[in-house]
């Protein structure tokens, strides 16, 4: 039995094909914006999709919901969707679906463990799950690309630095040009932020596992002092677990 997990972001959609008990997707397809109807229908037919789940940061086209519900056992992730953890977030209706899915993924990857999930993407989100399976919440800060853009947008003379041109190596701490100084401030400042927040959680909760995911995860994986577990598909894995959980409930 194959599952389809759709993660619709601000600019891209990821479609992942899972078996029900897999820890990694068998296939991932990335689309700019939304997939075309024929492309989505092909996925359903080619991989014999039986169940599906959709997570969207905003509104998605109704045709996607209709197609999934017509051809699969379909669920839409909302704050009312049953999940296998306790959500202690006080405004669950405002919680990002990707944050929730990543925490559910962490629950299955590291059972009975305090886990800090760091999703390094457009924003950097920190989400804490207790060893009892209680999601406590977390924090949100600007991601690397957002920081570079902010320095350029809100000043008169600072140039725009593109992160993909500097992500292969750590910059020198002391920048000897304006471009190097910006790169140093953003990169080293963000690394210091991550390390300080990890240390604060360790001070509060003791033993802690750090799960790193998101588009910039690979960069940080090699540049943090504490051993971490990098899982770039933690959100999709969590969506698949939420889907399997709901299929089990409704059997």
What this model shows, in words?
It contains seven helices and eleven strands. The protein is of the alpha/beta class. The chain folds into two domains: 1-76, ATPase, nucleotide binding domain (Nucleotidyltransferase, domain 5); 79-251, Nucleotidyltransferase, domain 5 (2-Layer Sandwich), CATH 3.30.420.40. The strands form two sheets. The protein has a six-stranded mixed β-sheet. It has a five-stranded mixed β-sheet with strand order 3-2-1-4-5, with helices on both faces. Helix 1 packs parallel to helix 2, helix 3 (97-109) packs across helix 7 (234-249) and helix 4 packs across helix 5 (178-205). The longest helix is centred in the last third of the chain and has 28 residues, at 178-205. The chain is globular. The chain starts with a strand and ends with a helix. The mean pLDDT is 91.
List keywords for this structure.
251 residues, alpha/beta, Nucleotidyltransferase, domain 5, globular
